[in-house]
Specification:
The protein is an alpha/beta fold and about 425 residues long. The chain contains 13 helices and 20 strands.
Length: about 425
């Protein structure tokens, strides 16, 4: 039963993967719930759109990482979504770009040596991951570029210890109808108020009061699934103020920037296989990764990260497209570049409700994930990929953190 001073047992702020998971769990536990979502849709940083080419595309998360243990894989099957179990083939990037098998083997050795140094060094004082690069190694630019794609930031900003804690089974699948569409479908039927950004969380009284664009809501407890970047930017006011350690955790877990741009590809191009991956350059950090003919469709996905992604985002979609065409023309020629027509692009860096794509820990801040996930006063709980100790930056990490926060809130409320 709710208190006389409360409208619901638990208010959930955000209808992304974590908020959807938390709300479903709480309802299953018999709690009354209201979800407040700033956007006009569910999914948060999971977002699928339909293009003029007639294909659904993910402008954010697209891979079921650790798919053999990812709960979204089971949810997808339960909801009738199709899963493409084709592995990504990221390791073939060099061969696709014309490098020899010997070069590729040299790359593999250098890559594994780097990650081994990172693994061993993470036991000591936390340091920037960049310090584990071998000076002068020919593949350092590619290693740094991969960090921008995986973390949304360059290696000099990445905590080596936090990076080591990430768990991945190496199994990566995709949802044919779109990962964002899957999260949105899973949100169907939940009590969600859209276009309701929360500006105040007041826990000074008997109930937790939340003030949103849709009006005020009182709850016995609240689960915040907003990214730490939103709190660090001061987009939500707290009364009383959050503890200093919570604020510090928000500052220590910024969101990196990764953006996608999809091109339609005119013509058949039989010399290019389905799901080919290629790096625009192996010599510099400021380069994009490309997936050619994803699922066999006549599309090209451009994926940029870090400083380059934010720079291109602010320059506009046309500048992003020009960059991608120029990189791809080096490998496939001017005719191929002319066959590319931009369809849709993301812009997560300046998105007011995310302020980035997914979280990374700054050097020296590896333990901030636990601090960010910790409840406040037994009434304010936190979830989202940034709160996941080992599956951060993933949609399943967000989902599992939402379940954990819901269970913690339920236990705190008692029966």
């Amino acid at each position: 039963m709710t208190d006389a001073m409360s409208d619901v047992d638990v208010a959930v702020v955000g209808a992304g993967a974590a908020g959807v998971a938390a709300a479903r769990r709480l309802l299953a536990l018999g709690r009354t719930v209201q979800v407040l979502e700033a956007r006009e849709r569910a999914g948060g940083r999971a977002h699928t759109v339909m293009t003029a080419a007639g294909f659904p595309i993910d402008l954010s998360c697209g891979w079921l990482h650790s798919a053999d243990r990812n709960p979204w894989a089971a949810i997808a099957r339960e909801l009738g979504f199709a899963i493409d179990e084709t592995q990504p083939g990221w390791g073939e990037r060099l061969v696709r770009a014309g490098f020899s098998r010997a070069d590729q083997e040299d790359w593999f050795r250098s890559r594994e040596a780097f990650y081994a140094r990172l693994e061993d060094g993470a036991e000591g004082p936390d340091r920037p991951a960049r310090e584990f690069l071998e000076p002068g190694n020919r593949w350092n630019g590619l290693l740094d570029a991969i960090s921008t794609w995986a973390n949304g930031a360059e290696l000099d900003r990445i905590s080596a210890r936090d990076n080591r804690r990430y768990e991945d089974t190496g199994v990566n699948w995709r949802v044919l109808e779109g990962y964002g569409a899957l999260v949105e479908r899973h949100a169907a039927g939940l009590p969600i108020k859209f276009l309701a950004p929360v500006g105040l969380v007041d826990r000074s009284g008997q109930a937790v009061k939340l003030e949103a664009a849709s009006g005020a809501l009182r709850a016995r407890a609240a689960i915040l699934t907003v990214p730490p970047s939103v709190v660090a930017a001061g987009n939500i006011r707290f009364v009383p103020e959050l503890p200093a350690e919570k604020r510090a955790a928000a500052e220590g877990l910024p969101l990196g920037v990764d953006n996608k741009l999809y091109f339609s590809l005119a013509g058949e191009w039989p010399e290019i296989g389905a799901n080919w991956h290629i790096a625009g350059s192996v010599e510099r950090t400021a380069t994009a990764s490309y997936q050619l003919k994803p699922h066999g469709r006549l599309l090209v996905e451009m994926f940029s990260g870090g400083k380059l992604a934010l720079e291109l985002e602010r320059a506009g979609a046309a500048a992003m497209a020009d960059f991608g065409r120029a990189e791809l023309a080096k490998f496939f020629g001017a005719k191929f570049a002319r066959a590319l027509k931009p369809l849709a692009a993301s812009a997560w860096g300046d998105d007011p409700f995310a302020r980035g794509s997914y979280s990374y820990a700054l050097p020296g801040h590896a333990d901030d994930r636990a601090g960010w996930a910790a409840p406040v006063d037994g009434r304010l709980f936190f979830a989202g990929e940034a709160a996941s100790p080992d599956f951060f930056s993933t949609t399943h990490g967000a989902y599992l953190s939402g379940i954990a926060a819901a269970d913690a809130a339920d236990a705190a409320l008692g029966r």
